[in-house]
Design brief:
By secondary structure, the protein is mainly β. It is built from no helices and 19 strands. The strands form 3 sheets. Strands 2, 5, 8, 11, 13, 15, 16, 18 and 19 form a 9-stranded parallel beta sheet that branches. The chain has a 7-stranded parallel beta sheet with strand order 1-4-7-10-12-14-17, with no helix packed on it. The N and C termini lie far apart (about 35 Å).
């Protein structure tokens, strides 16, 4: 469990099906910012088994996962993460400069509120019912199918869809 500010400069590898990585503000003393990479090192997170890399939030603390820059984002490979229901508060879980495009399918589970704080890329992405993806004026690229069962706030943002888009009859806020 990572519960303090830190910078990871290489590969964070969760390849054992019995192991888990938790980015966690639930048990932390305050807000947590985890930076992946620096000017000299591009970081990678590899999640071999679905849901073994997890995000656990707290309604009174902010969790930020950020790659070094839009030019040198954190590369995320492997399987989908576990999105714990405790990240549900608006502006409590922020991601920026993250490239999930090597993960074949990501699903922001029900009850989540995920805010982009910088550019992000995804392959196929589903925003489940009762969840919100807030692009927050940032750039999001989705190379696979995008399915919106929850809410999407894309006001003043740039969303690039390179495959099918299913808004489920909804008109996202703009």
């Amino acid at each position: 469990s990572i519960q303090e500010d830190c910078t990871i400069l290489g590969t964070l590898d969760c390849t054992d099906a019995l192991s888990a990585i938790y980015f966690d503000t639930n048990d932390s003393a305050g807000n947590v910012t985890i930076t992946f990479g620096d000017a000299d090192n591009q970081a990678t997170i590899h999640n071999h088994t679905a849901n073994r890399t997890s995000v656990r939030g707290n309604s009174s603390r902010i969790l930020t996962l950020q790659g070094h820059s839009a030019i040198q984002p954190c590369l995320v490979t492997g399987e989908d993460w576990g999105w714990d229901g405790r990240t549900a508060g608006a502006e409590k879980f922020l991601i920026s400069n993250m490239d999930f495009s090597a993960v074949s399918s990501m699903s922001i589970d029900a009850g989540q509120y995920v805010t982009l704080d910088g550019d992000c890329k995804f392959a196929a992405l589903t925003v489940e019912a009762t969840s919100t993806l807030d692009l927050n004026g940032q750039r999001m690229e989705c190379s696979g199918a995008f399915v919106l069962a929850g809410a999407l706030d894309w006001a003043s943002s740039m969303a690039i869809f390179n495959s099918t888009v299913d808004l489920a009859g909804k008109f996202p806020t703009s």
